[in-house]
Design a protein that fits this description.
By secondary structure, the protein is of the alpha+beta class. Helix content is 37%, strand content 29%. The mean pLDDT is 95. Keywords: Monooxygenase, Oxidoreductase.
Length: 106
Amino acid sequence: MPHIDQNAELQTVITTFEMTPGTCQDLLEALQDAYDNFISKQPGFIAAGLHVNDAQTRIANYSQWRRREDFQAMLRSDEMRERNRKINLLCRSFEPVMYDVVQAYG
């Protein structure tokens, strides 16, 4: 489970996927399979969460990695490149963005 802490030394990645309600479940299943069978087993992976909006037109993915390079290595692997080609067919767009936690509340 992700833990948000501005003092943690890790890389946060937030990816948003835009799709139609008709492809939401297929995309969610593809992402779950990617995490279950590949992403969560990669060096440097810490935690992730998948969130779906109520209209089923967006999925937000929050993931944490030990280092930026760990995330980049996973993304550039042959398996993830193939998975991303299939994921791309299920959505209008997706964009992973690396962030630094500035402040956490709660």
